[in-house]
Amino acid sequence: MPSLKEIKGRIASVNSTRKITSAMKMVASSKLHHAQVAIQNMLPYETMLEHILKSFLAAEAEAQTIYDQERPVKRVALVVFSSNSSLCGGFNANIIKKMQHTAAAFIDTLGAENVEIYPIGRKVTEKAQKLGYIVKGERNAMVDHPNVQNCIDLAMELGNRFAKGELDRVELIYHHFKSAGSQILTQKTFLPIDIESELERDHERDLTSNVVTREAQEYLKQKKKKNEQKEQKAVPLNDNFIVEPSMNAVLSVLMPKLAHLMIYTALLDSIASEHAARMVAMQTATDNADELLRQLNLQYNKSRQQAITSELLDIVGGSVNN
Q1: How many CA atoms lie within 13 A of 116 on its CB side?
Q2: Quick check: 293 and 63 in contact, CB under 8 A?
């Protein structure tokens, strides 16, 4: 049985750890709020771009660009989003596991030399290099300082390689931020772009709360029902409108903008998911520390009481002998 001094030292150690986890939880909560604001600021642009594209689709326009043409897959690129730091639960482990599973599936059919990794985040970069994958650059700064221009540059690089035939398929792997308590591991095709499936993807996000509670989940369900009631099918702006210079020319401009938006949205979702996962992990660690402190204090009090009882018995025994 440990001595009183050992138990007291362990209580002090757990207390120090609890202070750290509690402070990290508060920091993660603040960063999550900023990430939610960044997503909220992006939504008006996303809404307007989708309105324009849905209008074209509702007009049943027969238009094609080089970015939505299916062709035999011979070379693949995976754009994988992770964090630069740890202590965020299974966030990075899930991303890396998904990357390995997807890469292995493509390597089996295409060969290791035809699968490339575009890592965004230090954790996935280090793991991809360790596993011997073909890694295209390091973009760790994009996680700490998300910037639209960096996303545009990456989307343009991938788009140009796809147009030249150097890549036949590009996949995105990231966490979709649904709420502070729910981040969904997502894999979707970036190129060739399927406009219809992209416009019908899950837009549901809770950008108002940092609290992980059952009430927050119920709020999301109610919000989804309201959105379903309000959602209406997009109709053309005019039954017989004319597009200048041509539908193909307009779509060739809009499609790259949609690609830029897809990369930027995935980056913001991944960053918000990282902070949410870290906040939950630190909250869990703090709760575990509280429970451990309760058990240690109980053990300390029992040991102290036992020591006092033993000393009293010694004193009483000595008095009787005298």
Answers
A1: 15
A2: no
Whole-model pTM?
A: 0.84
Instruction: List the one residue out of 199, 175, 197 whose CA is nearest residue 271.
Output: 175
- 178 by DSSP, 3-state: which? strand
CATH of 35-281, one of 2.40.30.10, 1.10.10.10, 3.40.1380.10, 1.20.1300.10: 3.40.1380.10
Write down the domain spans for the chain. Answer: 35-281
Per residue in 165-210, pLDDT (tens digit) is 999 999 999 999 988 888 999 999 998 887 777 766 666 777 777 6
Q: CA 321, CA 175: separation in Å to the nearest integer?
A: 75
> Which of the residues are catalytic?
88
55 class by beta-carbon count within 10 Å (0-12 exposed, 13-18 middle, 19+ buried)? middle
